[in-house]
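Lay summary

Proteins are chains of building blocks that fold into shapes. Our project writes down both the chain and a compact code for its shape. Here are two examples, one after the other.
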Amino acid sequence: MIGKIIIYRIYKGTNATERNHFCQHFYGQETSSHRGKYRYRRKGLLDHIPHRRLIRGVLIIPSEYSGEVVEFLDRYDAEAYTRDVALTSDDVRALGLDEKG
């Protein structure tokens, strides 16, 4: 089974506010009220995309989501590379894919 590997980075010159904004919208964020009484999760793009994060800046995703992820990375002027990758049985399980497809 084939998936996509996406390797990306935000440039070093990006200020902390922009990096934080990127992370909130890409990965989502756990947050709470002022006194910690209420806890909730703000969803990010990857909350609805099955993915496997190998290390910082490296994701394996099902091929059909690659356009959406690359488009998001382009909006933040991230340097991004995508390649087809043969998925291991662990990848298939982690992505929740059917091994027969």
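And here is the second example, written the same way.
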Amino acid sequence: MTVQCSQIDWSRGAEPQADAYDSTIVLSLAAAQGYHRPAVADAPVILDGAVALLPDRSFEHIGECTIAPFQHPSIALAESAIKCWPDGFRQCQTLLHSIAIYDYAPFGSDQIVGSICGAGSNGFGSIAVTVNNHIGLAEGIVHEMAHHKLRMLGVDFEDSIRLVKNDPTALYPSPIRYDCLRPMSAVLHAQYSYTYIAQLDIMVVRGGIDRRRDQVIVERSLAVILPKLEFGRRIIAAEAIADAAGNEFLPALLNWVDRIIAEGYWLLGRFDVPPRTFNHPLTPRKEVKRARTA
């Protein structure tokens, strides 16, 4: 399927759609750039057989990172967790073709959350992620898939051809990066990838499969991420300069973020967990004041 950008309903591009509309659009845009889903015959698979587990050299530079065994127990647990979010699960099956799994010794055995993740070396649809903590593995999968998706929609980390048209030399505080200011395209990537993580967390907790695990997810993931999403939302709403596609995409994204924030804080209350205080060290003084009064 080939789709002209002028024909795309960008308001349905932000949040995973039950009818896979956004995944279809992303694959069409990828195909226009020459993407063909690679064959991975005889490789071990994940996500109900849709995605291959393939070795990748992406994390070789990280000390104490080694390729994990394909039979690692976190894999089945992570797959089960992503299934709690059916639309997200189907999107991972569609947009990813290979995952490289690593063991990172300092993480030890399964502490539920936490991972190192990044793009794989096999281009669009390939990722690398540590496998030690099963919710961390699940979060890393949707996180990196979101980056792939947003890049194909036209936004790279340092610049964009679509959605936002801020000057790439204009820099803003990111909800994820604290050592430097970032272009709006990078701010959007940070917000987008952590929106996916928060939605996954909510869906897992909503499933109510394991009360102890739910408590850990709320305490160590949602309580940390929600204030960052609020911060990123303010930056994007106040500073993003949208093109025609962005005028459809960004309101849909912010609406999704608002729903996540509302349900996330409800879950914090249900589990009696306070949100973690978040103050960006490079936030302009006017933004600090606005944050305190918002």
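What can we say about the second shape? The helical segments are 21-32, 73-82, 86-95, 134-153, 184-207, 211-239, 246-270, 285-293.
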